[in-house]
Amino acid sequence: MRWLSPPPLLNIVDDRGDGPVVVLIHGIASSSVTFQNLIPLLESGHRCISIDLLGFGTSPIVEDCDYALADHARAIHRTIQSLRLREPFTLVGHSMGALIGARYAARWPRHVAKLVLVSPPIYLSPGELSDDLDRGVMDFYLRAYRYIRENKGFTLQHAAIVEKFLAIPKAMDITERTWTPFVKSLQNSIESQTTVSDLAAVKAPVEIVYGSMDEFSAAGSMKIVARLRGVTVHRVAASDHLIGKRLARVVAQAI
């Protein structure tokens, strides 16, 4: 696997408020608009820094990149280093950003005071699960993602359908321009993830917040991460994958 050397600086979309630092990273094919309901709840008492991920939003697209968790995490790390933060911060990741956040906290433990994962799509190989229903759900997700990335014409032509499937309206961006980071991130950061082992290595307290109606939450893997040391799970009724107002309030409390 190729690593970017050096990783590019990402675009810092927003830096507002004063107090303990909260770094926010969004999910696949999205942007920092993901946190529009959360930042107003935090900015009076926190410094909120929103970063667009490598290949998405307003950050650079690098063609010769695997867009694996390591690539995303290293780009986040270089960007945070450029801010010269003096104290450990709270790292908040949504969707794929949660998977990247887990890798970052495992790799650079001294930088992270708390890790908050929002709507994390944590997946394992179906063969690693004992329950038949859990295995079936996991297999469905992985097959669906594989179909999306292996059928470019269909995916681009039916971007609105994919947007509805991924449940990130208006914050979604799947076009010819973003196709490479989208498909590679899907394959190398979501389908081929290491999140459970990353979480097992995280030293900071971990808060996981997800909705009872989250379209991408796999119950089988959530049962496993809930048993990990230092992990607290919050299941929010009547909330889906997005950070709506109800979910935002619970995330703000977790922070």
Automatic annotation (TrEMBL):
GO MF term set: hydrolase activity
Domain AB hydrolase-1: 20-152
UniProtKB keywords: Hydrolase
Gene3D superfamilies tied to this protein: alpha/beta hydrolase
The protein, known as: Alpha/beta hydrolase
Species whose genome carries this gene: Antiquaquibacter soli
